[in-house]
Amino acid sequence: MSIDMRTGTWLNPPADWVADGTGLTITTDEQTDFWRKTHYGFMRDTGHFLGFPTASEFTAQIRIQGEFRTLYDQAGLMVRIDETRWIKTGVEFTDGELFLSTVVTDDKSDWSVSQPFKELEDFYLRVTVSKGSLRIQASCDGIFWPLLRLAPFPEADSYEVGPTACTPERSGLQARFSEFTIGPATTKELHDLS
Predict the structure, then answer these.
(1) For 45, which of 13, 79, 82, 130 is 20 to 30 Å away at the CA?
(2) Does a structural domain hold residue 188?
(3) Is residue 176 part of a domain?
(4) Which pLDDT belongs to residue 21?
C-alpha cells in the first residue's frame, strides 16, 4: 500500500521539511544521530524519523535521493519499537565513500557497511520483519534486490517504520524520500532477489 507522507508521526522533526501525497523532502538539523553505547560510549536519539504504524510482520520499501558528502551523512529507513530497540539502514558517507549501512540496536548498537553497487545518490531500500528476523535488501533500479543484512530482531505486536536522516557532523543535508509502501511480509525465498 502506497503511503501518504503527510500522515506519519515525527520523532525529532527537522526545522525544514515538506511532505505531500508522493513524497517527503527534509533538510537535516545540526548534529543529529541515532546510536547506543557501542565503541563510542554515548547514546543519541536525536535523528529525524517519520514513523508509520505496522502490523507484527511487514515489508516496507522506499526510494532515497540525496547528495551525501560529509562524514556520517545518512538517509534511509528506520524500524523502531522504542529508544532501545530499533534499526536504521540506508546510505552513509564514511571513509570518503558512500556505503550502504545498517545499525541494528537491541540496547547496544552494531554497525555494518557494504557496497553491492556504487551509485548511492538515488536508490531503493526494502525491509522485511517476520518471525523474529529482519531482512534488508537494496536496489539501484527497483528490480534487482541484493541482500544487505539478515539479523535477529525482537518480535512485537507492532512497529513504526519510515524515513530517517541524520547528520552527526553538520546540518543541511537535503534528502528526498518517495515511492514508500508498507505491505504484508514478503514470502519470497531469501535468495530470490526480485
Answers:
(1) 130
(2) no
(3) yes
(4) 83
pLDDT score, position 1: 82
pTM for this prediction: 0.96
Domain holding 21, by residue range, is: 5-183
CATH number at residue 43: 2.60.120.200
Give the integer Cα–Cα distance in Å for 163 and 150.
20
How long a stretch of residues is the chain? 194
Location of C-alpha cell 515489508 = 59
The grid coordinates listed for 147 are 541482500
Place of cell 557501542: 38
pLDDT along the chain (194 residues), means of 10: 94 97 95 94 94 98 97 97 98 95 97 92 97 97 96 97 98 98 96 94
Alpha-carbon separation of residue 24 from 105, 113, 155, 162, 164 (angstroms): 25, 25, 29, 11, 11
Q: CA torsion 177→180→186→191, rounded to 10°?
A: -30
Number of domains in the chain: 1
Pairwise CA distance, residues 15 & 43, whole Å: 22
Please check whether residue 191 lies inside any domain of the structure: no
Say if 70 falls within a structural domain. yes
